[in-house]
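FW: tagging you since you asked about this chain on Friday. Here's the raw sequence from the shared folder, copied in full. Didn't touch anything.
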Amino acid sequence: MNMRKGRMGFVVLGSLVIIVSALAGQYKVKTENGVTIVTNGKKPDPPKGAPTKLILEEIFTVGGGDLRDESFVEISALDVLKDGTVYVLDTKDSRVKVFDAKGKFLRAFGKAGQGPGELNQPVGILITPENEVLVEDALNQRLAVFGLDGAFSRHVSTAKALGLSGIQMDGRGLIVARSMGLGEAGKMSMDVKTYDKDLNPKVKLASFEFPVSLQAKINPFSAMNLLYALDGQGYLYFGSQPGYEIKVLSLEGKPLKTIGREYDPVPITKEDKVEMLGLIPNVSGVNVRDMIQFPEYFPPFGNFVLADEGRLLVRTYEKGRANKEYYWDVFDAEGRYIAKVPIVHEIRLWRDGKAYFFVEDEEGYKSLKCCRACWEK
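HL: got it, structure written out here
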């Protein structure tokens, strides 16, 4: 009897050792060459009492209806003032539409064309530290600068940075953006660099090359390595693949931290391929769909956003129960994986306790939804 108790004790003790080892493996931190490396297991491991449940309460939705000023043809980007005023770029309408913190329409400015203050396929928008509205005017190859009231100020040529897009700016006015370049052996490259206020390039932070031949096969997820977000302290978060890693850099390009997680790859199904090919626009004289070569699995993540309190939300390809619902991994300010939450629609911006989404209806029209974001235990 005592021997049985002893054996049972060893079994229980052994099980406890396995459990403790497994839990310890969920979150590890080490330092290599001055870089903090955070690794997380597959299951969330939040500190005791940490709020991990996300509650989204809708504040307003704008974009529906027949009024040109208050509806969107095709939203591409937005930015928000401290008081909650929202500046939304409508690419197809070539205008910026402004709404207050409750969703009331305030004004619209800009129009299609090539003259002063006119826009031709604008793709991005940014409110600068000087409270100017900067619009990425792609086909006119310039930046259009407006006041907050919509008054046109000036143009800035992007000739020094071909195809400039995805502009973000720190408090000093230093710019981070993507641009096109020449690669090796007849290839083109997409680069992420820092620029000064006159768009002179400073530091190349990331790059990937791609062939320009119409016979070449393209992995549609290749550009995932160029996902980035600038936080309020001037640190740059970079998506690094094929592994599940988010790298944190200074704007001088110095590696500071790596946040990683173990994950189960999500296979790409035939239905997924059909859906993604259906989203590719027709290009005259080129069958882009025939150039696409899908990998066996999705990348570990498709997007990420920086939230309040230093939290990082990473959108995975793990599907939820609802239509267009995906799981987002949540990491705290230390890089610890603390939760995964299902969210319908893509989070485009998280600012001052509010999450902003572009919502698409069955006919393909998009509206902007603003939700108050709260965390609960």
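FW: Confidence is low (pLDDT under 50) at residues 1-25.
HL: agreed, and The first helix runs from residue 2 to 24.
FW: great, closing this out.
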